[in-house]
Amino acid sequence: MTRLMTLLGQRLRRDWLQLTLWIGGTMALALAGLSGAASTYGTEQERTALLATVMANPVILLFRGLPSGPGEQAFIVFLLMPFLVMMAAFMSSFLAVRHTRGDEEAGRLELVAATTAGRAMPSVATLVHGVLANLLLGVLVAAAFLSGGSPAEGSWLAGFTAACGGLTYLGVALLAAQLMRTSRGANSLAVWVLVVTYFIAGIGNALGTPSDDLTHMESSWLTWLSPFGWAENTRAFDENLWWPAFLCLAAFVLLAGAALALQTVRDLDASIIPERQGRAVARATLSTPTALVMRLAAGSTIGWMAGAFFAGALSTSLGSVVNEMGADNPAVADMLKALSAEADLEQAVVVVFFTMVGLLAACAGVQTVARARQEEAHGTAEPVLASPVERVRWLADFVVVGFIAIVLTCGAAFAGAWVGTARLDDGAALVGDAFVAAWGQVIAASVFLVLTALVFTIAPRWTIPLGWTLVTAAIVFGLFGPLLGLPEWVTNLSPFSVAPVPSGSEVDVRGMWWLVLTVGVGATASLVLMRRRELAAAG
């Protein structure tokens, strides 16, 4: 017990800031959702009309939860539950990999295993650490609902569900850390499982059966293959079913048990899935540092492009659906217009979906620059810089490749938008709107690219956490600001909210010039500062 408490204390000291951001952000999302949804959809008539529209157009359920009635709290859970579980899942996944495969890759686990703690105790400490973090998250989510006057049982069920969902993906990440050879591979596997199961739940809801009064949805069997589906089927503030949340707990126990069992049968620094062997001789295309960076970023960029293509296709193919929504429910029309500079509804849909594309593009850019920090911390940057490659050129390659990743991601979304207009009579106009929106999001996403590069030169240890924190904050302000009832000036703090967008037959440039100025100044400053910075492998 003494060894366990020592390791647990060490993990808490390392993670206190990151856990504060994740848990506090999840609670803040619940609080903001309660106040924002209550003011935006304040009457039962508005909520009933929106739910009826959702039932008639179930593709919307791909991005929301499971409708469980027009009650105020049940409606808020329909809007927020998938995102509460997603926040807990990301927190748990990164925590698990950081303290298992990450420590093993860095050589720290070998030092700990050489003490009386042994090999198993660090994993047990990580397990306990993740459980405590999710319990705290669940309690604070429940407290957020209780503070708004919500019924006690539904509030505690919502918090318990969010915590159980996070625990499921804690188990997924612990298992991924045993399967994959690197922390990068383990994180990628865990995130892909999260994204796939999220869409499985959304598709299962879309294929479900609506009730006669069009206020409830009975999900299809496909939803029951996903932890997100289990969480949504608890139906907090409606039926208050606890047993689906225990499916998440059961999955966590099985996954965590499998991870601990696999750890006992593999060697330290080995993996269940063997690392792919590289070529004996590099291709001529890898003869430059720029080509090396492109090789490192290729896999993740393709993933972001695939998601952007899907979002772009939906942005133009849902035009007729949203016109019906706006006619049936003015609150929906007002919300879309608030997110899109008062454009007409079809343009509004394009703008909203391309705001999501901008988010994906920003993630592609931030992840590319974050690789520079990973290369530096893992010691693989030093051999490159020992060759005739200057530090400025080395960082510039990551910035340039990150910008290319942003352009490709937004370009894939534009291609998807063009495909989505294939059956539309007035598709040409929407293609033009998609082109404007895509280039607007290129500018917005580039802000996060250069800010992350700037952090990398000033405070290397903060590159990854601060880069992703900036993106997360921009998501909350830009994508959920109008839904949560945030003031306009707060929403406009997000580059996604002030990027150039189509407005009628014109282009609303809004904050284009200050975005371009920020990109130029940030890129220049990061490269100038890199001239004087030494390598900081240990931060």
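^ that was protein a. below is b, sequence first then the tokens
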Amino acid sequence: MSKNLKATAIRVASTSALAATAATMIFASPASASALTDGIAATARAEEGNGACAHGGYVGGENQSSSCYNGQRTHAWCADFAGWVWARNGVTGLSALDDMADSFYDYGVKYGTLSSTPHVGDAVVYNHGGSYADDHVAIVTGISGNWVTITGGNQGGAPGHVSTHSTDAWQVGSSPWGQRISGYISPAGTTKPSYPSPSSLADGTLVKSPNGPDVKVMIKGAGVPVAGSDVTPDKYDLSKIVLVDDVAFRSLLSAPPSGTVVHDQAGGADRYVIVDGAALKIGGADWTAAGYNTRQDMGVPTAWLKAAAQRQIATGLVVMDQTGQDPARYVMVDGAALHISAAEWTADGYNEQTLMGVPGEWLKAAVAKSPGNGTVVMDQSGTDPARYVMVNGTALHISAAEWTANGYDQRSLMGVPGEWLGSAVGKQLVNGTVVKDASGKDATVYVMAGGKAVPLTYADFTGLGYDKRPLEAVPGAWLTTAAAKTAPADGTMLLAQGDATVWQVNAGKKRPMTADEFGPGKLSFNDVVSVPTALITALPTVTPTA
């Protein structure tokens, strides 16, 4: 090439050279950072490690040559890289640049952007007016406290590569890497549109990226998605959409912050509070008692709210009644609120977690739930080393042999309060639950009746209607014990197919029940368990007393 090129590889100095110049000025990350400057920094940093022939060569302004030809480095290419980065972000005035590092200094003089203070996105020129061997240009890609991060091409010795380094010796005249800093040059402008920051927009503003069709509505700094089905009922005016930067649009959180009170934008009396991205319905008694009536009430898209109302709070979140009427604390596990005893509050570290207030009515419903079937749990304190699987609110013990053989070790293991676990272990599995051995070694299907697993023939399985119920897999060792019980627990009510008599178990025997034992305030037929005739026949009948 005919040009006498000045841009050469930067020399990375030793530790002593890095510390040669003491800082005399402290500054923080500039508040004036923009989509342009952030884009420049991101573009430069994304090239880390690349050589001169990345992208087929770096070419910036119209008067800059390519850094690569025929797969080979053509010349010292630091200016080509810096020009390419600026060009990719629409910087104006690039015709003033050529393949020499000094052209960036001249750009700064021409457009009045030469400064002694670095800004993200600036070009930094080294050794302006010095020997050709030392001239260099790179890009400022970060500022934090008194440290400046700089990314440049053609660094590290020929053929050079893109690399990033930080220094606190950033002042003009300093030589952090053996080359004197001559000045910082900011871009004169950009041909790209300038978009507002979403965080600066008012609640209820509709926003979208110029690069896609999706629309969001700003709610407390979050961008809540607006579905096509929401536009008409929610009365969203698409003519008032504000375009925002694509990266900022995609980075928006999709749910308002926890504690935000919301309602369906299309209307309706129901109110919800956002907790961990879920919308929890606020009961009438909670609205004033919990102080929700004092918070701003935000309309949100109908489709989003419907989905959020079905969403569960994350497992491990610690909650309390926002009204304070229930002083207890609970931990969420698979949608259920499990009570934390006073002794466990500190001992198990629950006091170190964020405590979230939730509507009292919602909490009561969550307390009534249990973790879903198949959830594997353990004592949070570690006092009980055993593992259990949840089935219809009962915690069933998993033997050591079954832990791996039945694949329980492949599931998430949830720590739960020990006292709650003790009560769940002690619960009798719900009557009428249909179970089988999780290992598949025992092909028999059983129905639970008073803690006893009663075997079902295929005729029983279909004839008693159990083929219409979920079939729950349970640990084999636990099932063997349940099947070995001689009789259901006292008080269990049994009914055989084709027999009108309801029998109640008492001390391993059965007694016929009368119709007047059932009704309002008495026993319920809903609690009667249908079982094979063989079980009832095997139970001795209570001898009537004279």
